[in-house]
Each structure stands twice: as structure tokens, then as C-alpha cells.
Write a structure and sequence with these properties.
Length: 444
Amino acid sequence: MRLVVLGGGESGVGTAILGKKKGYDVFVSDFGKIKENYKEVLTINGIAWEDEKHSEELILNADVVMKSPGIPEKAPIVKKLIEKGIPVISEIEFAIQFTDATTVGITGSNGKTTTTLLTYHLLKQGGLNVGLAGNIGKSFAWQVAENKHDIYVLELSSFQLDGIINYKPHIAIITNISPDHLDRYNYDYNLYIDSKFRITKNQTEADYLIYDNEDEAIQNWLNNNEIKANKVPFSLITKSENQGAFLEDNNINSTINKELFTMPINELALEGKHNIKNAMAATAVAQLLNIRKQTIRESLTNFQGAEHRLEKVLKIQGVQYINDSKATNVNSVFYALDSMTTPTVWIVGGVDKGNDYDELMPLVREKVKAIVCLGVDNTKIINAFNNVVDVMVETTSMSEAVQLAQRLAEKGDSVLLSPACASFDLFENYEDRGKQFKQAIYNL
């Protein structure tokens, strides 16, 4: 069997290693440049590869193709593969056939990284043999090839879910759904919503779907579509009828299989309403996998959040600097601004993904004292907020953005990097953007 891997990044190289181990004839092709460390791994493992091109004669003879999530369906080589009827699948779909581990699959427009890390933390603290993969950490396929975990907690993007045929998580979480990546879905929000719900399409009556019961897109989809999995809703306002989690008297109440877990929200390590929901989702998983209540409680108290997600960097001259570089859409920024309790200098901008800034207006009016635009083209942001804040400045470098923010901030204020946009105009990715932000703060 010939396995062709499109994309020589973490998921691609991991898939190649697993494929080789399972006896496939493997070829890796990347239209961009493969990083030196990955080239080395491929060469050591005797795996053929090419970069900066796609050689059709070496690709279109595949039995199966694993496409990295960053490559769109519209890419010419992908179109040709689909025309030829060659299966194009995701890393998750390829790897799952080689493990009998239980998986917890987590998707959503926002909060999925935090929920994934928190779920992993709860299960690990509970003594389970658990791996962390998907959009985060080491490639799932690579771990299946080299490790023997009983459970995997997988962060799954819509792109990864688009490439599944048979994969099903035993427990699925949809944290929320809001417009994102619409450029990959013909600007049709319903296609994006359907993509998220692929996480439950193969689930059976023995499986579970945990979801935000207040989310309009989720509610509408569930009202119009049948699912087989057991529903486990969570909400800050609606009480669950039999199983699920809700908030009452500032306590999380989570009932799973008639077992009640309660915890005061002021003991949670993470702040903000959205993080109460993330904690509810992770708690439900821990209960379903029989983690002791005391362990869940301790783990929710001592968890340290995700890097680049509302990460408090430093306080300088009474000004708190917060790195939320992972906020690449409007909905993420909504959560960030909603959690701010001090006047805020907001650093925003990058590659716009079809953003509609209207829903941010009330929060910007209430909380933002100045805006620093950080991007090659800031026209849309300037047009949106010009009449809402008194001070707006533009820059195309992170160090200058941080210096400007420092000048605009006074003691007791916060400086928040929460870009609402992709990073590719000025940075490699959101991690690079977040690291440069932190470095610029250390240099002040």
C-alpha cells in the first residue's frame, strides 16, 4: 500500500513514521519548505520526501493520502486526488486504525485548547495513562507509533474533522461555535457548523457528546439533526434535567450517571465565565472516566492555563501585560475583553478572516481606552472603531506596538494582545506572535 503524506510538519512526519512502521510505502511531499529537524527524522527513518514542490507522478499513484490540516481542499493537487477517487484523510483518521485506545475529541471555535489541556490535566492527575495530541503537542500518529497510551485527549480543528470517515471519539466535546475560517468553507457558516458536528457523526449509544447548551449554533443544529450519543449539556443559566453541568449559587454542579460533583467557582484556577464552561466540560469527562471527586477538585484548583491564551506576562509600573495571541477570531476577543476588569490598551490586527466587529462594540466602548493596530492592512479595524475609542495608532512591528502601548497605559491599566486575526502577515504563526510580544515586554 502506498501512503502519500501532503505536508511535512508535525502531523505529516508523525503519519509518515506510523505508516512506515505499519509496512506502507511512504512518500512525503510539501509545497513549502520542510524544517531541518523534520527532514532529519524522515531521512533517519528511510522515508522519501520532497519539498517546495508536489511531483504529481509520485503523488497520484497513492492508495491513500494523508493531508495536513493547513492544506485547503481547493489546492490543485488535492482536487486531482479527489477527481481520481483516491481517499484523502486526516492524521486522526489514519492513526486511529492502529490503536485501541479510548479517545476524547474536543472541538469548538474557542476554548478548545484550554479545555483540552485541562481535561488532560484532570485525567493525568487521576492516574490514567493518557496522551495529549491533535492540534496540540506531539503528533497523534507519532504517539500511536511510539507510545502505548490507554486514552488520548485530542484537540480537533474543523479541518481535521473534515478528513475523517470512520473515526469516533468515545467522548466528544463541542465548546462553542462561532464564525471562523469561513474562507475555507465558501463563506457559508452552515458548512463550518456541519464540519464541527462531524465529531459526533460516528458516535453510538455507548458514547457521549458534551456541549454548550447556551450556544445558538449548537442548539439549532441539535434541534434539526438526530445524534446517537448520550447528550451531556453544560450551561451557566440552564439547569440540566438529568445529566450535565450547570451553575447555581456560584457553584458548579455536574451530574453524571446520577453522581453529583460540586465546586465553588472562586476556587477555580482559571478566571472568566468562559473558563467556568471549560471547567464544566473537562469535569464531565473526568466523571465519565471515574476520576475521584477530590482529584477533580484539586486539579481544577492547581491547573496552569495555556500559553498565549489570556496569559498574564508581567506587571510593569502597575500595568498588567496579557498575551492572548491565540485569539484569532472575534469570538475569542469577546471572551478576552469580557474578562478585563481594568481600562485596557488593546493590540489588535493581522490577516482578517472575514471579521464582523459589531459584537465587540459594547465591550470596546466600556473597557478599551486605546487601540494599537498591528498589521499590514488595518483599514477594517480603523473603520470599525474610529468613532468608538479616542486613541488609535498603527504599527507593523511588535516591539513598536508594545512601546506604544506602554506610553498609552497608566498605572492600574492593562495591555492586552488579542488580535482577532490570523498572524501570517507579520509572523510565522500565533505562537511566534505571542513569543515576540513577551520578548518585547521583557525588553521594556
